[in-house]
Amino acid sequence: MPSSVEIQRLIDLADADAVLPGIDAIFFQSSNTQSFADAAAKEQFRERWLGRYLMHDRRWAYVALAADGTAAGYLIASLDDPALTPRFADIAYFADFKHLTARFPAHLHINLAPHARGQGTGSALIARFASDAEDAGAPGVHVVTSRGARNAGFYAQNGFTERGATGQGPREIVFLGREL
After folding, report:
1. What spatial distance separates the first Cα and last Cα of the chain, rounded to whole Å?
2. What angle, rounded to 10 degrees, do the helices at 20-30 and 39-46 form?
3. Which residue of 55, 121, 160, 176 has the fewest CB atoms within a 10 Å radius of its CB?
4. What is the chain's Cα-based Rg?
5. What is the CATH number of domain 6-179?
6. Using CA atoms, how far apart are residues 153 and 143, in angstroms rounded to an integer?
7. pTM of the model
8. How far apart are CA 63 and CA 113, in angstroms?
9. What is the mean pLDDT of residues 156-170?
């Protein structure tokens, strides 16, 4: 990780709201979805994959701060089992993975600004969250991605292994778990 990047919990920042626009920018820049029918659809997308975590799980939100204080990346997470937690009921594949989420209930989403990729920042974010989640008693953490996605190698380097899959062809989703 570059020495000019510092990993902080969002709740520990004196002015956490000041970095939220940077987190939003990284979120949309990193997303596979780049166009939306309208502003409401864009906000619904943000709420589903970022906003609910910032609202309900801010304790598990981390930011990689560049030397100038701007966000170079972030990790948002929850320790709540998503197959059992009503706020995640709109994500259908969690029902398919219910047998796995009991063992790996914590889950995360991570994104980095392009200039921060390939420098260890993402691994540092995962290490920080994994340590804190383990200290809080989580037995395991998971991520869900598409089969063959470019991020699969990154997760493998960070201790995640495939534990299950659902769907077929280009819509196949894989569950990657890591014991804590």
Report:
1. 22
2. 100
3. 55
4. 16
5. 3.40.630.30
6. 13
7. 0.93
8. 11
9. 94
The structure tokens listed for 71 are 């966000």
- As a whole number, mean pLDDT of residues 141-157 equals 94
Write the single-letter amino acid at 15.
D
Residue 125 near residue 158, CB atoms below 8 Å? no
Q: What is the 3-state secondary structure (H, E, C) of the chain?
A: CCCCCEEEEHHHCCCHHHCHHHHHHHHHHHCCCCCCCCHHHHHHHHHHHHHHHHHHCHHHEEEEECCCCCEEEEEEEECCCCCCCHHHCCCCHHHHCHHHHCCCCEEEEEEECHHHCCCCHHHHHHHHHHHHHHHCCCCEEEEEEECCCCCHHHHHHCCCEEEEEECCHHHCEEEEEEEC
